[in-house]
Amino acid sequence: MEISGAKALVTGGSEGIGRAIAEALVAAGAEVAINARRRDVLDETAAAIGALALPGDVSVEADAIACVRAFVARFGRIDILVNNAGVGYHAPLVDVERARFDALLAVNVTGAMLMAREAARHFIRQRSGHLVNISSTSGLKGDAGATAYAASKFALRGMTECWRAELRRHDVRVMLVNPSEVLTGFSAKAGGRQQASAKKLRPKEIADAVLGALRIDDRGFIPELSVFATNPF
Ligand SMILES: NC(=O)c1ccc[n+]([C@@H]2O[C@H](COP(=O)([O-])OP(=O)(O)OC[C@H]3O[C@@H](n4cnc5c(N)ncnc54)[C@H](OP(=O)(O)O)[C@@H]3O)[C@@H](O)[C@H]2O)c1
Q1: pTM for this one?
Q2: Which of 8, 171, 177, 192 lies most in the core, judged by the most C-beta atoms within 10 Å?
Q3: Distance from the CA of 16 to the center of ligand 1, in angstroms?
Q4: Half-sphere exposure of 136 (CA within 13 A, CB side)
Q5: Is the pLDDT assigned to residue 116 strictly greater than 90?
Q6: What is the torsional sign of CA 211, 214, 215, 220?
């Protein structure tokens, strides 16, 4: 696809991987809106990168509907949805708290579905659209302490296959991106500790992968790609 001039919405675009993707899309000439819950951080990022701020919580159905509606009202159509908003929760099975498990699934699974649903209605009408779901290598392989997070990313991978099966015949491309560990504020928010290293992935590598996948001609698509650090050890 031609990214220049495309209208792109990035959820969780105020920080980390989403911000890097939004920034790369703006640099490539797209018209971009970013969504996130905390208004102050969102507004600051939107002003810094030249994007429109659309505040809201993807797990709240009314917010998801309003976000896509406001986007289309502003730009006239929606070409790209990057379903990136996500949260973590690290706990061994015996300590998993039901409320935190449910809250994580509400964002990573239900939120992604709501945003995709709203965008897909436009994609079908337009007979064109590009949906990029940001999953994780935790959606490919479970690990100790990752019950909630891995469940959510395995679910996102499954939903991606369903949406692809439905939307392909409408000329809509549905792609999945699985980053390995990336240096962002994500782990700290999830109660974990992240060891910084010049060898670990930065959000930029994920943004480069997403733009590369979007750039190939619409007649083809990359269903899924994983991004690993070459030597993070
Ligand atoms: N960092 C990693 O190592 C890594 C690896 C693989 C995959 N991922 C995935 O990559 C995505 C981005 O992660 P990141 O590392 O960039 O995280 P991050 O730095 O914590 O950024 C997360 C972004 O999502 C927003 N967000 C969170 N909950 C939201 C909600 N309910 N509605 C709307 N926005 C919401 C946050 O803003 P607010 O809090 O203000 O809403 C923020 O903009 C996630 O899906 C994550 O699972 C991350």
Answers
A1: 0.98
A2: 8
A3: 7
A4: 25
A5: yes
A6: positive
pLDDT tens profile 96-107: 999 999 999 999
- The correct CATH number of 7-226 out of 3.40.50.720, 1.25.10.10, 3.90.76.10, 3.10.290.10 is 3.40.50.720
- Closest residue by Cα to atom 37, ligand 1, is 36
Between CA 44 and CA 36 the distance in angstroms is: 12
Is-contact 23 47, C-beta < 8 A? no
User: Using an 8 Å Cβ cutoff, are 18 and 11 in contact?
Assistant: yes
Length of the chain in residues, anyone? 233
Task: Locate the domains of the chain by residue range.
Answer: 7-226
- CB of residue 107 inside a 6 A radius of ligand 1: yes
Mode of pairing for the β-strands spanning 31-35 and 52-53: parallel
Are the C-beta atoms of 12 and 56 separated by less than 8 Å? Answer: no
Q: At 208, give phi and psi (nearest 5°).
A: -60, -40
Give the H or E element holding residue 161: helix 147-167
Tens of pLDDT, residue by residue over 4-17, are: 999 999 999 999 99
Arithmetic mean of pLDDT, 125-132: 98
Query: Is 89 among the residues known to form the active site?
Result: no
Closest ligand 1 atom to Cα of 108: 45
Q: How confident is the model at residue 212 (pLDDT cuts 50, 70, 90)?
A: very high
